Batch of 2 targets.
Target 1
Amino acid sequence: MNDPYRQDPALLRGMTQRRLGRRDAFRLAGLSAAGLALAACGVQGKGAARPSSSAQAQSEVEKYWSGKTKNGHVDFANWPLYMDPKQPELKQFTQQTGITVTYKEVIQDNPSWFAKIQPQLAAGQSIDYDLMVVTNGLHFTQLVQLGYLVPLDHAKLPNFTANAGERYKNESFDPGNVYSIPWASGMTGIAYNPKYVDTPPTSMADLWNPKYKGKVGMMSDSQEIANFGLFALGIDPDTSTEADWQKAAAKLQEQRDAGIVRKYYDQAYIDPLAKGDIWLTMAWSGDVFQKNVSDGTDLKFVIPQEGATIWTDNMMIPKTATNPVDAIMLMDFFYDVNVAGHLAEYINYVTPVPAAKDVIAADAAKATGADKKLLEQVSTSSLVFPSAEDYAKLRSYKNFKTPQEQKKFESIFQAITTA
Amino acid sequence: MSRLRASLTPYLLLFPGTLWLAIFFVIPTVVMLSLSLQSGDVVNGYAFTFNWHSYVDGISTYHDQIIRSLVYGLFSTLIQIVIGFPVAYWIAFKGGSRKSVYLFLLLLPFLVSFVLRTISWQFFLSDNGMLLGPLKSMGLVPQDFHILATSAAVIGGLAYNFLPFMILPMYVALERIDPRVLEAAQDLYASKVQTFLRVVLPLSLPGVFAGVLMTFVPATSDYVNASVLGGTSNTMIGNVIQNQFLINQDYPTASALSFTLMALLLVGIFAYARALGTEDVLEVAAR
């Protein structure tokens, strides 16, 4: 079993001690004051162990939550386009509970969000948000390892317990939802513009097709692009080894060298796709749908036969939150079947609440005209409610056991994307 | 008492500027220098270990991007001189009473954010966009022709974005030329070309120098143009540094690369000052 959080304690101790030892040696050697001044600029980091038993986890939960009370306000940090701008869900929440919510779309991507909050969390200061949404992956793992997240009290999450889909209760990156519960999931697959691509792509091989020379977009994120290289070779990212990464990198290098790739995008691939600068590209499922709705484009999204990546954006409470009780109430509120249904109708990403399907179908039955068609589309969409066969093709990101492993991985794939 | 005050005055005048530089330049630079010599990772923390390998590894991995950035910076600066000099010359000598209007027009694009301007270029230059769409439908350029995702697009973007910084110092230098000097040249039977080459051009060089200083440095370290207008083979060192800082959280490598770039630029500037025969770089730049 791959458990990214259970680092070998001996290794951890060994690393920290050697480093401390060296630092001491410098002091003893009586380095110049300048040297000491430089050394004083060290960046603090502190690994926190994941609770090793359920009893220990329970005591952590009790320790944190005892004495915490409702304050009547939540500051919520989320990603753009992740809620109807009119925020009907939040209004309903305020009506029901009297808790006001400040909702800010401040998270553009995981790395820069992590870089922004890390210094404050390391210093034990508030980040001004009580609730935030972070994707599973490197930064989520680091938030857990650094002990920056509040262990969730499941007694305060009755809706989640009752309504969350089974697979969302046991995700490999946070088994048992100790620190997080999903906001929404999505797939990384292939999007294409039918104006330029006649034969719909069905497999990874289409991204390597010389016919599309200079018109293929790939993602610059190491984990995203690595998965596509691995899928193309028929390797499951989760069990992949360094040798597999090298092979995948060679495959991706081949694609780059042949001039097929137009650009490695961070996330701004959807406009070039709509404009025809690129014809097909790696893409996130919901983006394609939202672009079609907002701009009237006719972009298509497919899950290639070899497989695709599924990722989950998760709600979590930072350790320094000032209103944790209000935050956990809001988290649970989104697991109300009706709320989850209405949210999915708007954002069109996979909802962790399977029963939301009936809510959307019921809304569709009530609606008329274009709305009806749209809602019917959503309730039957495999991008919002993937079937069992879809799920069988979907794989997660690679979980890393050590920072060294992660560094190796990054360097292999960034050699392609940032050359 | 008044003598004491008089001798203190220069220091008091310098105090705000010195404080500003100390807090926002000296301290971050020292922190970054320290970071570049540390080792570790973000989970376990970074510690100072005199780990100069970050420099060796950084340079050996990313020398292509460093060289590419210097080349892009150089070309964009040359383009700016070629475009900017006539503009500065025209405003200074032919602008008449509307000089300030022309200068204002020159600065007008700066009221729009840097990133937004670059993105609008992306729109303008896109494969089927406002420029190439009509050209392609008229059959003037081949269907698969594109400007975006090429070196030319990135260099063009850099030249466009920093152009006013090149024109303004050149304009200042040209504007200061005493018209009587030009009259004197004519009185001595110099042709217009001779006047330009032997009087105007030498007198404008400090302005060109300052312009180069203000554009070559930011153009070389820029990352916005490469990420918005570039393709797979246009990554500049600024993109790498941003990537190392924000995505990999490899602060030592990012800092080491920043210092390497800083050192290269400083060496380049002083060599350039030597070549121009101006020893006192700072004095010239301040003019």
Target 2
Amino acid sequence: MINSSPLLRMEGVSKRYGGVRALEKASLEIWPGRIHCILGENGAGKSTLIKLIAGVVAPDEGHILLDGKAVSFASPAAANEAGIVCIFQELSLIPDLSVADNIMISDPPTRAGMIDRKQQRICAEEALAQAGAEDIHPLALVKDLPLSRRQMVEIAKALARKPRILILDEATSALTAADVTKIFAVLKRLRSDGMALLYISHRMHEIAELADECTVFRNGQKIETYKAGSKTNTEVVELMIGREYKNVFPPKPVKKSDTKLPTLQIINLSWTDRLRDISLSVQRGEIIGLGGLDGQGQRDLLLALFGVLRGCSGQVLIDGAAVKINSPTMAKSENIGMALIPEDRKTEGLMLPMSVRDNLSFAALHRISKGGIVDSAREQKLTQEMINLLAIKTANVDLAVGSLSGGNQQKVVIAKWLMNKPRIILLNDPTRGIDVGTKQELYVLLRKLADEGAAIIFYSTDYDELIGCCDRVLVLYDGKVTRELVGAEITERVLIASALNIDMEKVVHA
Amino acid sequence: MNAILDSQIFRLLRRFDPAVTTAFGCILLLLVVGGTYSSNFLSPEYLLQQLKVASFLGIIATGMMMIILLGQIDLSVPWVVTVGAMMSCAVVGHGTVGAILAIPFGILCGVAIGLVNGFGVAYLRIPSMIITLATNAVAQGLMVVYTGGFSPQDSASPAMRYLATGFVIPGLPNSVVCWAIVGALAVFLLTRTTFGRAIYGIGNRERAAYLSGINTRRIVMTAFGISGGLAALGGVLLAGYASKAAQSMGDAYLLPAIAAVVLGGTSILGGRGSYLGTVAGVMLITLLQSILSVMQMPEFGRQIIYGVVIIAMLLLYGREKLQR
Amino acid sequence: MKDWRFWFAEQRGTFMAIAIFLMMFVIYISNHPAGFNANIVQTASNKGVLLAFVAMAQALVVITSGIDLSIGMIFTLTNCLASWLVTGSPLQVAIGVVVVLFVGALCGAINGAVVIYGRLQPIVATIATGAIYYGIALALRPTPGGTVDEILADALTGKLFGFIPASLVALLVVVLVVWIPFSRSVTGRAAYAVGSSEQAAFMSGVPIKRAKFITYTLAGLLAGIGGLFLTFFTYTGEAAYASGNAYTLFSIASVVLGGVSLMGGRGSAIGAIFGALAFRTIGDLLFVFDFDPLWQPLFQGVVLLLAVSLSAFGLLRIRNRLEWFG
């Protein structure tokens, strides 16, 4: 099928969250009867792009044109009305309703004002069959299904809406290989029926199989749109990585021989099906990176170490002595001295309406108090030290921390833990959504802390950071450590290849 | 130096929470209205009498405030108040030892119920509204069994009467002194101790407080214990004031206590609010009640006006943020 | 798996409530000095039905993960109103019934509006509206009194064909006319969706506000029906504060016993009805065992405390402690 005009066109669309630009003057054309793949690293702006098209958030500037007419969707429901249906990464299924209820949630067949369950079930079964998921019973409750089945329900739900534009955001991430094959057949059939598909995936071979055209995003900007097959994998990876932050990292020290006892050692740590037999050790002064695609167990590993997860098996040794850490309270205690910079500073790191001072001293209250009474003078002194150390820009310490910029908020989160003088520092993607300048300051700070004797585990979704900051990098895939890279081995190509769990040689020589 | 000066100005400004200012404004308005209605209303004796009435509510509302700061609610207040009153009176009957132990025993009973609430909320993660309703029912059941369903015959000890109606400081009723002490302790606890910091932290974002290594469960349980103890202390004082305990004497304190805290600018979602606001809320409620009774407003009118005033004030500054 | 198994799994809470009720009822009847007869069933059902209506009302709101602490006061208010209006000529009685039910629904709608459009927390908002409703009830009936059409009252509280309690039939009719259509409507399903996951419901384009508003309104209506029946049983209206509060409390207890999740999204009003009947029977059990009736409030309180504590077993399954914080 040949069409002369795109079904959907975005022109100069931008979106900011607070001070951070998630998408900057992006343009995109989506044509009927084609599969358009979007590529980019974590945080490149892909999710924001989809949310804009699907009506979850509204753009700050620019236009979205559907059939040549400007549209603005007030809600996902409005976008659905217009024929745009999105399969989100965070599932939009309602756990306590049945599969059939969920598939037909937006527009169920009714008779005399009541939902016609028989008809609904027939429609749901059709949709499930269309998605190749006949094995799912339409009356099962969604919350009782395993993740991969839920994902199939999500796909069936999208198909039941008979969309003109179907957006799949990492829709295959939880699927089995057999499911993926079925879904691909479905997607190709939909393409030949004239549907426009937008496909977001990290998996290169999926893109190679499906794509008609590809667009690469990086740092919220569109880099290039090209015809599928016109570039080698290597070239695509180069496009995704970019060359922006060169030489912003402090030099790494020459590695001394490890004769001392490791500060932190983990042996065969497992937790549910998310962490499988993880072993690692960190020396004083060492920065260990955790790499891999998002959601391969890195966060769970940090939480497990910090005493948040229940039912972990395996051993944790601090300075060679086995410890059982059951709570963050225990993790931060004097003899363990652990600190966790959490993933989401707004809900896990800070109390936004409280003052900078209150936030800074919150994790170190025992250090600034005697008998439970806060020593204001000492608090003032220590918080001021931290503000100076991290160069936190705040007019005064009584301001609500929520009024600071993202970068300064993140500095407060880190400072509040440094006040405790931790020996082991766990960082969960600490540079997400902060500006380049602040990032650079953090890199220097991390190295300084390491030089002063801290053992650091650093999870980042930004490969550049892993390369620039870390002495060693462990790559996780599906809850397992699949590769350990040391020193000069840590390169972009190897990191990406092992993250995607594809053979490195193929990428290098592709 | 400049920074320190700035900081002090800021702290001063923060005291003038618009909600607290509004509440005090309303108090002035009520005084003016009352004064024009009857000149008696502004006499020192009458105002002192109001302060005395307010002190019971003030003590109970102090406990409620801690719970609301945590983002929870304590609906067991009515029968904890009654338990405090009845149990202290009950002990009085047992000779000198009983007379000495009366006040602490009444308070301890309240603490015990509060700790059950706290355990349910903190460790069993039962919504506070539900568990406190349940303990309220159990407390009621216990008291009904104990009294046989009638007003108990025990009377308050002289010490309880003295605490509620006597004068240590000439001219200032002891119950007001009690409230002042409880209030001062509460302010100290909330602003100067790690416990107070933790309460605000948990109320704002329990998840972040937990990840900061705060033992959130212990803090929550302790706060409920304090709230129970203060409600029972309120009951002890009320029993001393009336010389005896009575069935459902606490019913009249639940809604006013919550209203006083919320009208004083403490967010019902937790984490935000000052004790000064609660003081304002308590006075506001007490004056409102007093004016309505001076005007001989029947009970139904008071109930309606309460409800309307609370909804109106909440709509002014207690709304949730819009999503998206 | 067979279809019925899924259906059974979905309604497990309801079946549990039915089982608890039957067990309690059998114990009650088999120990009753007078044995099983129509009069005992009639008395039991008349007492149980009142709470059943209020529990249904509470269940609706709880399904959307809200709470209505004014429900007992709506019940009291409509009782007082009915003691004025449901009397006189048949036409006047009919109009009276309609007005009483309308006022019940209106109270519910006000709650809904305050919670949804005023964006206030349901707990505080409904405590405050509860005070207003109680005030109005007190204005209507400063002292207990009033009257009600006795023919209608006796018909609805007596026996059909000499052995079927009429109040039970009335309850059944309400279930068929109000609950069943609601639960199978698009709005009803939206109410479940909102209670289960408001975020996912929003993403799926479910009419959140409409669902909540209609639910609160229907809850008011059901509480109004309860208030009407209270008038039929007592022939008077009384603005009893303690009784109104007790009904609010018992409605929550019944909902919990009836397998409706307080987190929303799960359970049914039918479960709540059986929860209410079971709760009433538990209270009455003490009588047949010759316990002092004074123990009844304590017994009910303890049962409630245990019932709410049972939900804590779910905590054992949580592997990530951050889930404690929702």
